[in-house]
Each structure stands twice: as C-alpha cells, then as structure tokens.
Amino acid sequence: MAVSPPPLPLPADLAQVVESALAAHAARPGALLPIFHAIQDRAGYVPREALPRIAWAVNQSQADVLGTLSFYHDFRTHPPGRHVVKLCRAEACQARGSDAVVADVEGRLRVGMGRTREDGAVTLEPVYCLGNCALGPSAMVDGRLHARATADRIAALVEEAPPCR
Amino acid sequence: MPVNPPTVVWVPLDAAAKSVGADEVAAAIVAEAARRRLPVTVRRNGTRGMLWLEPLVEVETAGGRTAYGPVAPGDVASLFDRGFLAGGAHPLGHGRTEAIPYFARQERVTFARVGLTDPLDLAAYEAHGGWRGLRNALARSGAEVVDAVTRSGLRGRGGAGFPTGIKWKTVLDTPADRKYVVVNADEGDSGTFSDRMVMEGDPYLLLEGMAVAGVALGATQGYVYLRSEYPDAERVLTAAVERATAAGFLGASVLGSGKRFDVEVRRGAGSYVCGEETALLESLEGKRGVVRYRPPVPAVAGLFGRPTALNNVITFASVPFVLDRGADAYRDLGVGRSRGTLPFQLAGNVARGGLVEKAFGLTLRELIEDFGGGTASGRPVRAVQVGGPLGSFLPASALDVPLDYEALAGKGGILGHGGVVVFDDTADMARLARYAMEFCAIESCGKCTPCRIGSTRGVEVIDRLVAGDRPQRQVALLRDLCDTMTHASLCALGGMAPLPVTSALDHFPEDFGLAPAGAARDARRS
Ligand SMILES: Cc1cc2nc3c(=O)[nH]c(=O)nc-3n(C[C@H](O)[C@H](O)[C@H](O)COP(=O)(O)O)c2cc1C
Ligand code: SF4
Ligand code: FES
Known about the structure:
Distance between the termini of chain A: 58 Å
Radius of gyration of chain A: 18 Å
Number of strands of chain B: 16
Strand content of chain B: 15-25%
Radius of gyration of chain B: 24 Å
Largest interface: A-B, 42 and 60 residues
Bound molecules: flavin mononucleotide, iron/sulfur cluster, FE2/S2 (inorganic) cluster
CATH architecture of the largest domain in chain A: 3-Layer(aba) Sandwich
Oligomer: heterodimer
CATH topology of the largest domain in chain A: Glutaredoxin
Shape of chain A: elongated
Number of helices of chain A: 7
Number of strands of chain A: 5
Largest sheet of chain B: 5 strands, mixed
CATH superfamily of the largest domain in chain B: NADH-ubiquinone oxidoreductase 51kDa subunit
Structural class of chain A: alpha+beta
CATH superfamily of the largest domain in chain A: Glutaredoxin
Number of domains of chain B: 4
Number of domains of chain A: 2
Order of helices and strands of chain A: HHHHEHHEEEEH
CATH architecture of the largest domain in chain B: 3-Layer(aba) Sandwich
CATH topology of the largest domain in chain B: Rossmann fold
Number of helices of chain B: 22
Distance between the termini of chain B: 82 Å
C-alpha cells in the first residue's frame, strides 16, 4: 500500500525522536509500549501530535493508540519539569513515615503531587513501590533511587547546579 | 610493583545498596587504595539481603569473606587504617558474612548465589552450579521435565500459589504452531523485592529457568515483563540476555541442542493491574492492560492466543534447582502443601529489613522478632500486612501463625508473594483502609463495576465513617460494599481489596471512631 504517512507536526528534533522510535520498534509484535517508552525516554513525554503517525505505523486506529497511551500511569503527554521526583506512596513506605515526607516535599518544592511547578523546574509524581521497602521512604529522582528520603535531601537533589562547585 | 595479588573487595550493585550510597563507597575504596598504593580490586556483587547493613562491604580474606557495614564513604579511611583488607577489627565489622546469624539461619536455595558473585559473570555462574538444570532438562523429554516440576510440589510464587507442574503440563499438551514463555516481573506488591534481587543479583538463574521451560514445553520465544520502576534490573537483565545469547545458552541452538529459545525484556508502564496475568498479556500485546475473561486460561490461549507458560520470577528461578538436585530435594523442604522455600521480604517499620529465604512453616513472629529485631522505631508492633496491598492486616496477637499458604488462609490472610510489612503502634488503620480502597480505584482496569465504582465509593464511606457521620450506617454500607466487591469482581484486585479494609475494621475499630471490639461486630450484617 502506497498510502503516505501522516505528517508529524513537531519540531525537527522531536520528530526525529518519534521517527527513530518507530523505525526501531514498529515492526515488533505488541509494539506500542516499546514505542511510547522509546519516545518518552528521549523526549520526556509522548507528544499528542505524534499519535497519527504512530497509529499509521502500527496499523491501528488513533483511538486505540490514544486508549493505550492513556491507560498507563507512566506515560505523559506534556513535557515534565527539568527534574522528575517520584515519591513512593505505598504501604511499606507509609509504615516508615512517607506521608509526612510527601507533605514536606510538596511544601519545600512548592509543587503538588502530580504536578509540574510553574517555572518548569520540577515535576512531582506518586509511585506505588520502588522495591526498596525495607529502607523507605523511597524516592526516585531523575531515574535514581534514594532510600530514607527526607524533604531536605530531595530539595538538595533538585536544586539547580550552582554556577561553580 | 605489588608482588601479592590484589585483595578483592566486594561492594553490591543492587539498587537497594546503591540507594544508600554503594557506588560512592566503591569509588572511595578505589581512591583510598590508590592513595595508599595498596593492590585492591573492587568487584560488584548482588546484595546479601541484609538491607539494614547496606552498603555491606565484603573483603576476601584467608578466613573467608569478612563483612563491614553499613559503610559510608567517610568510613573508608578508617577501614583501611584498621586493616580491613586483612579482616581487621572495626566498629562496623561483622566477622564472616556467612556466620552473621540473620544469614546463617536461612535456607538459601533459590538465592544461593545472590550476593556471592558478580551477577553478569558467566564463568562464576557456571562455577557455582549454573546451567546444570538446563543441561539435565535438555537430556530429558518435555514430559519428564514437567513431571519433575510437578513432583517438586512447586507452586507459583506470584501470589495465587497454583501448582506450576499442572500449568506446564497444560502448555505441553496443547498443540499449537507457537508457544511462549512469559515471566511476570511486575512485582507490584508493596513490601516485595525478591524478584528485583534475583534479576539484579543472579539474572542467569531466571534465564536458565525460562530456558528449561522453553526447551521442555516447545516454546521458542520468552518475554520478561518487567516493571518500569526497576531500571537497574532492566540494565542487568538486558546485559545478561545479550551475554547468555552470545555464549549459546540462549538463542538459535540452546547449548547446541538445535532448540531455539530467545528472550526479550519488555518494560511495563506503571500499572499495578498489569501484574494480573491476563492484563499483563494484553499489555505485552501492546494494548490497554484490561483483564481478560477466563476461560481460556493463558496456558491454553495466552500471548497472541498461543499456549503460554506464564509464571512469576521466583517460580522460574526455583526451577533450575529442581532439575539439578531433583524434585525430592526441593519437596523435602517445607510443610503440608507448601513445599520448598520462600524468599520472605521483611519491610516497613522493621529494624532489620531484608530478604529471608526459609522453608515454609516458620512463624510470622520468628520472622519479625528473630530476624527483623522488631520495629525500626522501637515501638510495639501493631499490625502486619502480609501478601501485598490485597493482603489483610493481622493484629500483633496473630503473629504465631506459621507462614504457609494454608495456615495464612485459615487466618483470613494470604501469603501472596511473601512480602511482610510491619507497622508500629502509631499506624492509623483507618487511613490504611482508606488507602487500600483508593489504591484499588487508582489501579482498577475498569472492566467491572464493583471494582471501578465500588472502590471510589469505599473511600467516601470510610471518610464519612471517620468523620463520625452516622457511623453504624457507614459500617453497614462499607461491609455491604466489600461483600459486593468480593463476590462480583472479575479479578483479585477488586475481589481482594476488601481484605485489608474489613480486617482493619475487625481488628482496629477504634481507629474508625468506633467502640473497640464488640460494638463493631454487632453492627455487622450477617
Ligand atoms: C491485581 C493483581 C496483581 C498481580 N501482580 C502480580 C505480580 O506483580 N507478579 C506476579 O508474579 N503475579 C502477580 N499476580 C498474579 C498473577 O495473576 C499470576 O497468578 C502469576 O503471575 C502466575 O505465576 P505463578 O503461578 O508463578 O505465581 C497479580 C494478580 C492480580 C490479580
Ligand atoms: S476487579 Fe477491577 S481490576 Fe479486576 S477486572 Fe474487574 S475492574 Fe479490572
Ligand atoms: S513500598 Fe515504597 S518502595 Fe516499596
């Protein structure tokens, strides 16, 4: 079939991310999650503008593709902050005081759970267990796991690097 | 130039160890050795599972591996000063690692190699008994392998405890053009990390278990569905697949047998319900993680409609021992219908949290008091949740229950994936009950109403109850709601989410603003 691909109305670098994700994964069985991850790993989110092209590449309806994307907590359709902080809300961390840490972090970072701060510095997300349940409260900051989280530690990790060390 | 061979110092690369600074400690040891011009090789292992001692540094000495921990980068100079390279005494010293009581009292079967070796070192894996199970499996018929697994008494370690041999026999006996092996590495239960520890600490063990299933059942493709919360496990496992394939343990001809078995690691996307096996398969197929109606069971029509051997990480990781040492050796461990060992995971408010592999049958009290040393806060234990977010809360008075599938069921509990979460007397059980409902609402796949709507209603009712708004009426409503969810949900998410709620209400009514004990029971509908 010689149907031409739908356009990718995105800045060149983002379009490139989408195209390379499709080139790498579209032919695999059950390709959608690997495609979404490949895009989000590099771009930080999955732009909605990419959905027509993704749907075309995997030969599914746009509704199906959006349905899958929106089902999973991991996938974002908006760019996150420069830092992403995930705080564990699950039981074993609650037993170690995570509820108070969550409240402290929200106050210190001036951002609510599930939101990105207005200046774009940080996104705060809930997570339900990071597999470090004996050493909680657990946090993942920019992909790195931290034990015994406190608001001070998290704030220090998120503060933008000072001009000189 | 040093004449002596370098001293080997092990620093774990497990995510838990790294979360408390293991990488920084490893770097500090390398730097300090260089500064002192001492020949030291720092190697990375999995964790020994004594997580309160992490980063646990081990030195290879004439007397065996000597442990120091928890080590901070600032402790490194003093370790060198006190001759830790020769096993010297230090306030952080614990003597021989394997003599530490927490470790010595375990029965390490599945976790025998975890923490001992460099996880990606193929030669070390083989030197410590690796691939023997797979070699034996290749020398037998598929039916003989399935028979061994059946006779071992191995039951699925993912939660439901279904006999693995029966599942595998169904896959074997169902004719199809293709079959699959799928590992459930979604490990979503709070308080569990044994899957993660195997994948990061002994990844070839999981791959060997998968390959045994593959060659025995005639499956050529294996998938590991790995939760996205485990980036370290993904890195280690992906590298292990590459190396094992390059070395011919996986791939076009497993160990030269002419049988193909490929493995691919697939990342989940933060959905708890995708740990449910049929939702997992939907997700692997690239769809929303919505639970399927059964029948057919996945062993008959699973991934892409083909017969699929879908098991938990620990289930697959238990198989090489069965094929290597024999079904009887495994069966000889355990009690009743719970055979073999379970890697218990001690978590939450516990002084000595970590992984404890024991034969089934030790009591919850032994686990929490003897191994765990009581709460981390030093306060009394108030409640324990065994088996993840769908497990009931047991009061401190129930700690003498033996840990096996049937005994816990007899107490209205579940063993699940073996996670044990300890709460001290500051725990607010109404808040935890509310969380259980909230979690169910957040994670519901949406297919059935009792789960999707009932969980949200449950949160509201608990809120009204705690606010003191016509409490007896709310209790009746809540119990009614739980009853509906229990009986009318398609899967265990909606079906068992009421367990933590009703157990909290039964054992801790005062936290809901109700009179202790008797009064709450009177309000219950029969
Ligand atoms: C909501 C829900 C979540 C589950 N999560 C997991 C999980 O994370 N890991 C797992 O192995 N099994 C999980 N299970 C159990 C699986 O459905 C299935 O029974 C298991 O993976 C089969 O493997 P096994 O026989 O080796 O235990 C879950 C079940 C439900 C209902
Ligand atoms: S009980 Fe909940 S999670 Fe399970 S199938 Fe029904 S709606 Fe989905
Ligand atoms: S419960 Fe927080 S890391 Fe497991």
